[in-house]
Amino acid sequence: MTTIERDAAGGIDDDELTALALAADPDAPVDEDAVPFGLPLDDEDGYDDGTPLARRRRPRWVKVMIVVMIVAFLVVDAYGLCSTYGVIETA
User: Which residues lie across from 90 on neighbouring strands?
Assistant: First the structure.
């Protein structure tokens, strides 16, 4: 079965892929035209590196609220109280 016929039939099954992986030489050099596995293909150079993700800056008040909530939960736990249902009570 040729590669084209195999691709048309639905790809490589797990047994064949396992046999190929076990038979491969881990020390073999990588081809110059090899494409990294898992990257989406691009029309220009063979693969797309993608764009770096920009860090979204949160406003200062959001950071303060996050810290206040974490500290509040730690204080409630430190005193042995229970706040499971939104009402602080003795555990």
Answer: 81
